[in-house]
Design goal:
This protein is mostly helical and 208 residues long. It has seven helices and no strands.
């Protein structure tokens, strides 16, 4: 009995010096941390808190944490929206010209890259005029992004166009639809260009 009492006291003394509190704290913090919706095996990035439309916590490379050279989360969302809108227009344009919906005398074909160079060879003037127009709009866009990021009064991608949504919930719904369709369009545009270059077959023909 005396030996059992001594052993109990000895074990209690050892247990008192073990880092139990720190271990429990670490485990508790890990269990309570919010998981990413898109990648449940990873923790949700700190800056992706769900306030942006389409935010599913997908950032395995940690791009949302970049702050150097002005490339922050605001800039990244602005770039994503801009490329999404361009991609949606590009997909419609690519499929339209493949179906022959072009201005009279303009080239049409299955390979979008070939069609681009055909247009350039036959219409260099309008091509460079369009390039200058795009450059001008990019300059205005850059100023808007810079000032909006400084003041905090402008949401990324907001150029003052009236939303179709009449209530805050409808506005959020349209913003979510825009970014989801835009992300899909970016993949679609890349696929149209790639398969057109490889197979010389248009998107419509490859679809059916």
């Amino acid at each position: 009995m005396f030996r059992l009492l001594i052993a109990s006291l000895f074990l209690s003394a050892i247990y008192g010096f073990m880092p139990v509190t720190k271990t429990n704290s670490r485990v508790s913090t890990s269990l309570s941390a919010e998981r990413s919706k898109s990648l449940p095996f990873l923790l949700r990035p700190a800056k992706l808190d769900g306030t942006l439309a389409g935010d599913e916590g997908f950032d395995p490379l940690g791009l949302s944490n970049i702050e150097e050279l002005g490339i922050d989360l605001y800039w990244s969302r602005e770039a994503e929206l801009k490329h999404s809108r361009i991609a949606m227009l590009a997909v419609v344009g690519a499929v339209g010209q493949e179906l022959g919906l072009v201005f009279p005398g303009q080239p049409t074909g299955k390979n979008q890259i070939d069609v681009f160079w055909q247009f350039y060879d036959s219409n260099p003037g309008p091509f460079f005029a369009g390039l200058l127009a795009v450059s001008f709009f990019e300059l205005i866009s850059g100023l808007a992004i810079t000032e909006g990021r400084k003041s905090g009064d402008r949401a990324p991608g907001d150029f003052g166009f009236k939303s179709w949504g009449k209530t805050p919930s409808e506005v959020k719904s349209y913003e979510l639809k825009e970014i989801r369709n835009g992300r899909l369009a970016m993949w679609a545009a890349a696929g149209i260009l790639l398969q057109g270059s490889v197979t010389d077959t248009g998107a419509v023909d490859n679809l059916f």
